[in-house]
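Handout, section 4.2: multi-component inputs.
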Amino acid sequence: MSLQDIDRRNGESVTTAAREADPPAVTTLRRKDLLGIADLSAPEITLILDTAEAMKEVATRPIKKVPALRGKTVVNLFFEPSTRTRTSFEIAEKRLSADTLNIAIGTSSVVKGETLADTALNLEAMAPDMIVLRHSSSGAGHLLSRICRSGIINAGDGTHEHPTQALLDAFTIRERKGRLSGLKVAIIGDLLHSRVLRSNIQLLTKMGADVWVSGPPTLIPAGMRDFGVTATANVDEAVADADVIMLLRIQLERMEGAYFPSQREYFNVFGMTTNRLRLARPDVIIMHPGPMNRGVEIASEVADGPYSVILDQVANGVAVRMAVLYLLAGGVDHEEAA
Amino acid sequence: MKKLLRGGRLVDPRNGIDGTYDVLIDGDRIARVGRDIPADGATVVEIPPGLVVCPGLIDMHVHLREPGQEHKETVATGTASAVAGGFTAVACMPNTVPVNDNANVTTLILSKAAEAALARVYPIGAVSKGSKGELLADIAELRQAGCVAISDDGHPVATALLMRRALEYAGMFDIPLIEHCEDPTLKGDGVAHEGFHASVLGLRGIPGAAEALGVERGVLLAELTGSKLHIAHMSARASIRAVRKGKEAGVRVTCEVAPHHFTLTDEALGAPIAYDTNTKMNPPLREVADRDAMIAGIADGTVDAIATDHAPHHYDEKQVEFDRAPFGIVGLETAVSLTFDRLLHTGLVRLPRIVELLSSNPAQILKIPGGTLAAGTQADITILAPDLKVRVDARSFRSRSRNTPFDGWELRGGVAATIVGGRTVFTNAEAGLTNV
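Output:
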């Protein structure tokens, strides 16, 4: 299937109003939630990435603030520890002039045994406009979205999705390569437990990239072929002529589940070294969603080397999250006006 | 008091009957089955064309939750649900609180059932004390008190050795051990069938092999001991294969399949409602090839019974994150409709075979009365409406719980009336039968 076909097919899910505009472009996200890349069409993904470009410019201004979300309340509801994602969302919200509130596990009533549904209903009673949710259970955002009128942004749910991470990854790739379609992207590491993987393969395949995934067979999810990607335990095959290499964090406690024998063996077989990097295209970029295990999935020379765009990913995260918040809030206004 | 069911299609596979017959009920017994039985003072119930009179349906795998979890279900609400679903008898699993591992609990369940006076209740006792997998429960005492089988359902019998001993010991009563087949290490902390759909949704997988390993173990131990083994709620194609091989080798093994496992696949995890906790059960909804193998096993005779694994859970318990939700769905009030819609009207299974699966075979496996309509037997009769259009409405369930993935489904086939011991305990006004 060509990229045009993918665009056309995905475009069908876009509303009539949007299609009557200049196809296949869309101008709003006509939805209240962003639960996963699975829900987005290719034109919607493009819209978010284009909007993020405009948002990125805000960070270069002396006063890094626009009034887009003034008067809107955004709750960052984090049931899992997170530094990068929570900070990134909070900066994005503040740059859009939203009123933000952070709720982290330990300060919430969850420790008192309250259910997620009750926590959500109580928050809902205070009428926030959006809830940014990080939770250890896959589908927690779906549960919240069925209960709440507030828009739900999934900031990582279990091993399901982490859509804003995939969007910022795509933004970073597009920034460097000028496109997503036709690129060979190799994603390597703990595929089984990675929400970043699931969001990225859905986004990249929708946008026409050639996606390869690799890792120990114990950490490759069932039914990978049906995702439209090539799965291999041979890392060199995945890396060969890659335009983009994305490394996923190996959680060291996985050794206890007998997923792999040791850090040393993992690094020897699957680690990204400067030697292995030579198999990729000369202009390859190296990505990592963080936090990194240096010397396990990635050698320090690679992480700190010239191909690495790892810190660009972090910088772009703010712009992409601003775009998502802005577009979802705009979608709400649009519906109210109609 | 006599009642004559006149002119219905009577299906009684054990007696080789499938035709237009009358049934005369006298008190709690069937007095006569035959053609053109004179009314002779009996109340005449004309059975409209299209309805089917058959031996009362028996669900050999339900959870009534009493004692201990009455917020989910009680013996009274569970048996009300049973008769509304066409079941005149149910066998209830011992994983109550406390576990049914002694005569006191068995007696309590039976007295609650007598009080409710709806469906007959046949308790299943625990294999091990507290179902903990360590010491054998007092199986003779359980048998004496009225248990018809033993099981540690919810979990497999903990070790092969304990299972061997239980099979040997229960062998002296010739009651079956009903095994929940599962290798606990392979199941791990899985919550859904291991496959594409669980992978997309980021749900921890349970491979079919986890179940089939348990089936293989069970079949081998049944062969070793010569005792009766019944495999509960099969879902994996490799399990069907193992049972088929065991039967061919002459092992005394029987098995059951639940309606959700011949109806749904793991695709239901993601749509129409993503992460609907009413698609979470153990064993999980499996992939198409497994679902098709269940249907093939039902059609070719490998599967002996359709049993619901009716597992009521309170709304609050299911309204949580998918991985935290309890396993299980209610099944008593949808089983007949699903069986007709998916097996009969698709042409895969004929009506007499359905009556075997839902009545005659469970009676035979548990060695309980029923499963036939011979003169002199207790008058447990279900009148089925195979062509009735049914719209599943969970809010109208008699069960205390509503955890079903089938809410709103439109199905062809339902229940017209349920008669237990000559007493009509359920009639469905929509089926066109009035004065039963």
